[in-house]
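As a warm-up, study this chain.
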Amino acid sequence: MSGMRKGEQDGQTIRLGVQELIGEYAECIDEDRLEEWPDLFADPCRYLIINRANHEAGMRHGVMYAATRGMLLDRVFTIRRANLFEPHRYRHVVGPIRLKSVENTTAIVHSHFIVARIMQTGETTMFATGRYLDRIDIATDDYRFMERVVVLDSDRIDTLLAIPI
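Now compare it with the structure written out below.
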C-alpha cells in the first residue's frame, strides 16, 4: 500500500472499513435488500459491469452502467417493478480483498468474486466470476464506493443478468 500520509487513518483501520463496505455490498444483494444497495455509493459515482475483453480494450460502458446514485435507484425500481425475469437470488464469495493504495481520501481496492445463482427451484449454478476494481471514498466513517467496476472473466454475458453483481 502506498500513498499513506502521516496522521491519516492507519492501514488496519482502512482495511477494516473497506472490508465492511464490500461485505455489506454483497449482503445487500444476496439478502435481497436491493433498496439499500445504492446507499453504499457516493454521488456521483460510477458502477459498471463489463466483460474482460471490453475492459482490456479500454471501453467505458458495459452491460450495466450507472453514473449517479439516482441511476442506481432507477435500477432497483426497474428490477422490482418493470423487468420481467425468472425469480432468483445470488450468493457472493469475495476475496482476497487487496488494498492497493491510498491517496488522500480515496482507497484503490481490488478483489475477486464468485457468484452462485440460486433459482426458485433450488437449482444452484455458477453464475459469474471476476474481479472488482474499486475507488472508495474513505473521508468519513461511512465509506462509499466512488467507482465499482465489475470485470467479468467470461466474455459471454448471461441474459438473466438483471440484479447487480
